[in-house]
Specification:
- The complex is a heterodimer of chains A (315) and B (291).
- Chain A has helices spanning 2-29, 33-39, 45-54, 61-73, 87-122, 127-141, 144-158, 175-209, 212-219, 224-261, 267-276, 280-308.
- Chain A is mainly alpha-helical and 315 residues long.
- In chain A, helix 11 (267-276) packs antiparallel against helix 12.
- Chain A is globular.
- Chain B has one domain (61-268): Orthogonal Bundle (MetI-like fold), CATH 1.10.3720.10.
- Helix content of chain B is 69%, strand content 0%.
- Chain B has helices at residues 3-15, 18-35, 71-107, 109-122, 127-138, 142-168, 172-179, 184-192, 197-220, 232-239, 247-277.
- Classes of the chains: A mainly alpha (315), B mainly alpha (291).
Chain lengths: 315, 291
């Protein structure tokens, strides 16, 4: 098991390394290069020379990359050009908000997706199944940002139940305020994810329900509820774990868009602001952190999968 | 049966599916409107500040925006932006992705390993973030949006093509061409590729949907095609500021965008169903990177 984990990590290392090289090289591809980014467009030759020496830009590029990577590994992502604050601090301020949104929307997705999948799978090809499949297609196809706008129109503009812009309120400070603020963003993102959940879990359940052990369980008189809950669901969840991994890319992308819709102060909004103010150290930092989170989650999903399914060989 | 007859038989079967029929009608209508927008006497740029943010009326079917411009005209010209960007992006993805998949699958070995690892690096970041990073470097322009959306589509084409090639590689007709001394290039492009088209076509439809969505999402985030070019995402972005005064501003262009995406999705599902029916599907790795 430990060997398997180590092997997965060694497989991921080259990808991580190349991706980090790409993120680092970003600043060199920008018109004006790193110097232009640091000193601005109208700098004098003396300022340029001073900055070149100060930031070590006269060293060979590979040495520069090595230094950048070494700093990044110990958490030094440089200083934001705009606010002059350390990039890591800025990211650390925003990360809890994004994590809270991610957890809340996962809950919404599970609450919507699992019942839909079970209902669909129990009555395959019925009108109910077709209606619920239609729901999944809609949930997947409707752009997150349009759904968010529709929800704001209904719950904030028409009914005036919830705020149209969501702030970050930590759960432990005020659960009620937190719920009011997170409800619409979590619903927006959760509906989309529930579409993926429902579609794949349904397919997986339909397959399991035709298995021999289900017939055996039925013939010995087990209640349908126990058959589903104790046997089928557990087995159907196995292939499903891989889907969770595949889903992460969409989930992270969805978070960025959802944060923009509700002006929610998370990591995604920080990145968008950084891009519009051309704050390259901050852009690099945000993307690097998202990359690491993304790879770490995929890695966890792989290991989890191997752990719950003893048939997977990790020798 | 020749190819023309086969294609028309396929089309007829496709049209028996209601979803596919409606999708094709809608897409034809929106493409027609985008192509002949200049003949429709719609002006997406003329401002009329006295009549800003007006409700939908006979003169302005979708109402007017904050500068008094006709929202319907902007939605129609936005369709042109969206469809052209999607077509260009899918073209870029196909032109790079298909050769990668062909070479990787045909030769195997180190070429396969190197090419597919390179493709994996493109997948190391979620599509929309990759596109945002590229725009951060290239600056905000129409070309940047096109390239950014196109590059994110390369992995799907490479993977689907590679899977097809692997399935066809050891078939007799491919071996025969090799035995007669056909070059690898000839074999890849003239023997294998013509037999691998169907799943690639499905991928084109699926990616068109993804590309339209991605372009709109980038514009919505304020990093896509810069104004004043009309774009659905940009309209949603601006419309969001006027939800209290003019709710239709964000709702109607969003509806057109959503129907376009749903049409491509539904068409993609119908094509997949058709191919599964004919057992032509080797491994459809339909990847959806939805923002």
């Amino acid at each position: 098991m430990i060997g398997y984990v180590l092997r997965r990590i060694t497989q991921l290392l080259p990808v991580l390394l190349i991706a980090s090289l790409g993120i680092w090289a970003m600043i060199y591809a920008v018109p004006g290069g790193p110097i232009g980014v640091i000193v601005g467009e109208n700098a004098t030759q003396e300022q340029i020379d001073a900055a070149t020496r100060q930031f070590g830009l006269d060293r060979p590029v590979l040495v520069q990359y090595g230094a950048w990577l070494k700093n990044a590994l110990v958490g030094d992502l440089g200083v934001s050009i705009h606010s002059r604050e350390p990039v890591l601090d800025l990211i650390a301020q925003r990360l809890p908000a994004t994590i809270q949104l991610a957890i809340a929307s996962t809950l919404v997705a599970l609450l919507l997706g699992i019942p839909i999948a079970i209902t669909s799978a129990l009555f395959p090809d019925s009108w109910l199944d077709r209606a619920l499949s239609g729901w999944s297609a809609l949930a997947l196809g409707v752009p997150t940002f349009w759904l968010g706008i529709l929800l704001i129109l209904l719950f904030a503009v028409e009914l005036r139940w919830l705020p149209s812009a969501s702030g970050y309120v930590p759960f432990w400070e005020s659960p009620i305020q937190m719920m009011r603020n997170i409800a619409l963003p979590a619903l927006t993102l959760g509906v989309y994810v529930s579409g993926i959940l429902a579609r794949f879990l349904r397919a997986s359940l339909v397959g399991e329900l035709q298995a021999d052990y289900v017939r055996t369980a039925r013939s010995k008189g087990l209640r349908e509820r126990d058959i589903i809950g104790r046997h089928v669901l557990r087995n159907a969840l196995l292939p499903f774990v891989t889907i969770v991994g595949l889903m992460m890319a969409n989930f992270i992308g969805g978070t960025v868009v959802t944060e923009a819709v509700f002006t929610y102060p998370g990591l995604g909004r920080l990145l968008i602001t950084a891009i519009s103010t051309r704050d390259y150290p901050l852009i690099q930092g945000c993307i690097l952190v998202i990359l690491v989170i993304y790879v770490a989650i995929n890695m966890t999903v792989d290991v989890l999968y191997a752990y719950i399914d003893p048939r997977i060989e990790y020798a | 049966m020749n190819r023309m007859m086969r294609a028309s038989a396929m089309t007829r079967r496709l049209l028996t599916r209601k979803g596919a029929l409606f999708s094709l009608i809608f897409l034809a209508a929106i493409t027609g409107a985008a192509a002949f927008a200049d003949l429709l006497s719609l002006d997406p740029l003329s401002q009329d500040l006295v009549n800003a943010l007006e409700k939908p009326s006979a003169a302005h079917w979708f109402g007017t925006d904050e500068l008094g411009r006709d929202i319907m005209a902007r939605a129609v010209y936005g369709a042109r932006t969206s469809l052209l960007t999607a077509a260009g992006a899918v073209g870029i993805a196909a032109m790079v992705g298909i050769p990668i998949g062909l070479v990787a699958g045909f030769f195997g070995g180190w070429r396969d390993a190197v090419l597919m690892r390179a493709v994996d690096v493109l997948l190391a970041l979620p599509g929309i973030l990759f596109a945002m990073a590229m725009i951060a470097v290239l600056g905000r322009s129409q070309t940047a949006a096109l390239i950014a959306v196109g590059v994110t589509g390369i992995p799907s084409f490479a993977r689907v093509t590679r899977a097809q090639v692997l399935a066809l590689r050891k078939r007799d007709f491919v071996t025969a061409v090799e035995a007669f001394g056909g070059t690898s290039t000839y074999n890849m492009f003239r023997t294998i590729l013509p037999n691998a088209w169907s799943p690639i076509l499905v991928q084109v439809v699926v990616l068109a949907s993804v590309a339209i969505l991605l372009e709109a999402a980038l514009a919505f985030l304020g990093v896509g095609i810069p104004p004043p070019t009309p774009s659905w995402g940009e309209m949603l972005r601006t419309g969001k500021s006027f939800l209290y005064e003019a709710p239709y501003y964000a709702v109607l262009p969003g509806l057109v965008l959503t129907l376009t995406i749903l049409s491509f999705d539904s068409l993609g599902r119908s094509l997949t169903w058709l191919l599964e029916d004919r057992h032509e599907l080797v491994e459809l790795n339909v990847e959806r990177a939805k923002p």
